[in-house]
Amino acid sequence: MRLFRDAFRFQAALTLRSPDTVHVLVTAPLYTVVFMAISRHAHRTDLAAYAVLAPVLMSLWSLALLTAGDLISRERSRGTLEAMVATPASFPVVVLARITAVTTISTVSFVESWLVAWWPFGVVVRVEHPLTLLWCLVLSALAMAGTASAMSALYVLLPTARTLQNSFTYPFYLLGGILVPVSYLPEWLRPLSRLVFLSWSSDLLRSALSPAPVVDELPRLAAIAVLGAAGCAVGGLMITRILRRVRSTGTLART
Amino acid sequence: MRYLVRTSTVLRYSAANAWADFRASYTWWSWTFGWLGRMLAQVTFFAFVGIMLGDQAQLRYLVVGNAVMTCVVETMSVVASSSSEGRIGTLPLLSAAPVRLAWVFLGRSVQWPVSGSLTALVSLLALAPAFGVHWSPTQVPALVLLVPLTALSTYAVGLFLSAFVLTASGARNLLSNSAYLVMMAICGVQVPVDFWPSWVRSIASTLPLTHGLAAIRSVGDRAPVADVLGQAGLALACGVGWLVMAVLAFSLLEQHSRRRDAFDFGG
Amino acid sequence: MTDAVETRSLRRTFPARAGRGGGEIVALGGVDLSIPSGSVRGLLGPNGAGKTTLCKILSTVLLPSSGTASVLGHDVRHETLAVKRSIGVVFGGDRGLYGRLTPRQNLQLWGALYDLHGRALSRRVDELLERVGLSGRARDRVDGFSRGMKQRLHLARGLISDPRVLILDEPTSGMDPVAVRDFRGLIGELTAEGRTLLLTTHDMAEAEAVCDEVTLIDNGVLLATDTPARLAARLSTLERVEADGVADDVLAGLSALSGVSKAHRETGGRVVVHTTTPAATSEVLALLVSAGVTALRTVRPSLEEVYLHVIGDRGMLVSP
User: Where do transmembrane segments lie in this chain (chain A) (predicted)?
Assistant: First the structure.
C-alpha cells in the first residue's frame, strides 16, 4: 500500500507538469461547448447532463491511454525498466498506481465541464444523487487504470499497437455510450459495448444527474468494478510476463 | 518570374520531404485501419448524436459537417510536424539559408491536407450514405473540388499557428487540437453559425472552414451554382489571407530568433 | 590579402536567467577578428567560450548586440542575404539532416533553398555526392547512416551553394578516427580551392593538423591568434626534457634545480622534466649528461599544452 502511495504521488507530480494533462484540461471544456451547442440548438435541454458528462469520460479515457502508452515504453527506452525489475517493488502495483494518479487528476474535468454548462450556456446541471456520482467516478477512475495497465502491457508486447493508439478513442466513445446511450446503438453492437466498462459508467453517471431514482445502483457499480478488475488482472498478468522475459533475456530491447 | 521558379522549386522539394515523412509514419494498412478508421468512427459518433436527436435534418447536418471536419483535424497536424524541425535541428540551417522560412514550411507538411481531403471524401461518399446522406453523380465532382479547397485553405491557418510553436514544441498538440475544436464549435460543423453571438460569428467568418463547408452544404441542397461559387471564393480568399499572415508570422519569428537566440546550433 | 571575415568590437550579451541575480551574460565581449581570404582559421576554446555564438552571428542566425561583423565585405546585420549566399554552415553531430530522406533528396532540398534548380541543381548534387563519397548510398535513407557518413553529408550540404566561406562548428565531434582522417582530407581540398574556413573545435590535434592559424577564445574574449607552431614558440620558455635510465638520486637532483617546475617518472620508467627558462633546460641537460644518461631529448610544448597554459587546466568545466 505504501508503494502504491509513493508511486501515485510520483506520477501525480509528473502528470501535473505534463503537457498532455494541460491538453486534456483545455480540450475538455471545448468539447463541452460543442456538445452543449448541439443540445441547445436542438432545444433539448434534457441532454445538458449528457453534454457535461461526455467530456469527463473522454478526458479520463484519452489521458489514461496516453499515459499508459508512454509509461512502460518510456521506462524501456530510458533503460530503467531493467533496473526496476531488480527492485523488490511489485512492478504491476507501480504501473497501476501511476495510472490511477492520472485518472484521478482527469476527473477534475468534471468541474470544468459543469462550469462551462453554467457559463456561457446558463444551464445549472444539478447533481441529484451525489453519492452515486462520487462512487461512480471513483470506480470508473480505478477501472480505467485497470484497463489502461492492460493497454500499456499490450504496447510493449505488440509495438505496432502503438501506431494505432489514436484509433482507440472514438470507437470506444461510441461503444462506451459516453454521449449517446448504448440503447441508441444497433442491436448487434450492444452486447459488445456491455464489455466496455465505459458503457456502465456513462449510464450510471447520467442516472446520478437525473431526478429519477437510481435503479439497480449496486449491480451497476459492481459491473464497473468487475470489468475494471478484469482489465487489471489481464494487465498484471501481461506485465508479469514481460518482466519474466526481461529476467530471462536481460533486456527488452526489441522493436 | 525568377522568384516564382525559385519558390516553386523550394515547394516541390519541401513537399518531397513531406511525402517521405508520411511514408515513414503510415503504411497503407495503418492509414486505412488506424487513421481512416478512427476518423470514420468520429463521424459515426456525431451521426449517432443526430440519431439520438431523432431528426433527419439534424442527422444530415451533423454527418456532412463532421465528414468535412475530418480534413480539418488532419490538416491541423501541420502544427506538430512543423515543430519537428526544432527537434531535428534544422532550424538554424534554414534560418541561415537565403529563403523565406514560410515557403519551406508551406511545402513541408502538405501531406496532411492531401491525406485529410482523402479522409473527408471517403467520409462523405462512403460513410454518409449509411446515414441517409446521398449524392448524385453530378454533385460528386463539386465535392472533389471543394473538399481539397477547404483543406488547403485551412492549411494556411495551421501554418500561421505553427509559426508560434516552432521553438516551443511542448505546446504543439495543445494548440492544434484546441484550434480544431474551436473550428468544430463555431464554423457551422455541429450547429449553424447563426447560433452564436455576433462576435463569435465574425471570428467564424474569417475561417476558411466556415465558407468551404457552407459551399459543400449548398451543393448538397442543390443551391444555385452562384451560391456555391460565392462561398468557395470566400474560402479561397480567407485561405490567401491566412497565408499572408503566415508569411508575416514566419518573418517575425525569424527576426525574433535573431535577437533572442532561439535557434540552437547542432551538437 | 583581403580579409574574408572581419569583426570589430563584436559584442553579444544575453539577459541572465532568473535566479542569477539579473544583469547580463557576456557571450562575446568586444571581439576583433580578421580571417584572411583563403586561410583555415581554428577557433579553440572550452565549452561556453563563445565559439558557437560567433558562428551564429557570422551565419546571420543571431544578431550582434553591438560592434560589426562582415563576411566578404557584407555586413551581417544589414546585408543578410548577401552574407547568406556567401557562406556555408556545417555542424557536427547527428542533428540538422532529414533522416527520412535520401542524401540526394537532402541535397536537392537544400540546393533549392540556395537558389539552384533544374539541371544546375542535379549536376551540383551529383558532384557533391561523388566528392564526399556517398554516390553509392544516394538512394538509402540517411537514418541508417554512420556518424562519419552523416558528417560527410553535412559537409556536402554546407557546400551546396559553392560558398567562398565555410563555417564548421565542431565538425568532427563523435567521429571515429578513420572518418576524422577522411574529413581532414576533404578540408585540405577545400583550402586548395581557395575557400576560407572557420573551424571551431576543442580538439587540439585537429587544430594543429588543419589550421593555418589558431585563435584561442575563452569567456567571450580572444586570448591569442597565431600559427600553431608560433603559438607554441611564444611559450618556448616552456620546455620539456625526457630521458630514459635516470637513477632516483639524479631525479631528486633534477627536482632541486631552480627553474624546474616539475620532474617526475612516468609509468614506463621515463623521466619527464618541465622547465620554465632556457637556462634551466641547459642545466638539466648538463646534469643528465654528467650522470651518464644518453637517451634524452627536449620537446617543444604541443598546442594542447599551450592551450592548457593560456586557458588554464579547467578540464571539462563549462564557464558560467
Answer: 21-41, 47-68, 89-111, 131-158, 170-189, 221-239
